[in-house]
Amino acid sequence: MRASKLLAVPSNIEGSETTLSFIPKKGRIRLIDTNLRAAIKPLSPECNMFSMVIKRGERGLVALTVTRPRKDWDETFPFIFEVSFGERDKEPKIDLNKIWIPSSERVGEIVYTNQGYFLQIMTADGKFFSNCDKPDRGATVMKPGLLCRFLLGLSPIDEVERAAIEHSVEESAREQLAKAKAKIEGNDREYWDAITAATEKYNKVAKENKLLQERIEARDLELSRLRPSHKAAVDLANALSKDWQWCLRTETVVALANFGRIIGIDFSRHK
Description:
By secondary structure, the protein is α+β, with helices and mostly antiparallel strands. It contains three helices and twelve strands; from the N terminus they run ββββββββββββααα. β9 and β10 form a beta hairpin. α2 packs across α3.
């Protein structure tokens, strides 16, 4: 499938700069990578169009996909274009009918993995680099435009390898940070679980103590009510124990009257 059947690229020249708009004739478009200044980041979600700027004297490489809806499925076409804007050119040159062919020392292609479409390069000594976060083979380079600059011969392989090492170090640091964060969060959860358990235990003990205190207070109240009866009974017993003439003694009569008043019986009526 020729790109000219799926894609239109109108331009707007303003002095030494030209804006190129990549517009699918039908379907959606996704920028995979480019070394030119684009309005969206590479590997952004599919969109209806995107634009980029090329200056006079610049050369650029654009890797993209066009997804066309079908009746039962979506069909995706990958493309790589070279764009140039010479000092004497009236407008940038981009051929939608020409297939870009890389050199034998700087091979590049758009590959598909279970994560989607990505740009992959292969060096002369057989090393693979890709802007896929988890490539099927080779190392990852996430620096936008670097793979395109390498394919155009504008960046050496050393720069690509350094970028791959930097990404590996950053990825390792991110993994360690994620593990440390997970450990901290786990410790926090354990701490708060312990606090929650201790609080629940404290509340339970406090509730039991409150019930016990209420029982004690109820017992003390009952005892306070029984003390006068007990004292009156003791006084009466003491009076009765002094001699057989207990009923003639004034203190016995008084004790008996006090006891009767407390327990609610009038002994004077039973003489």
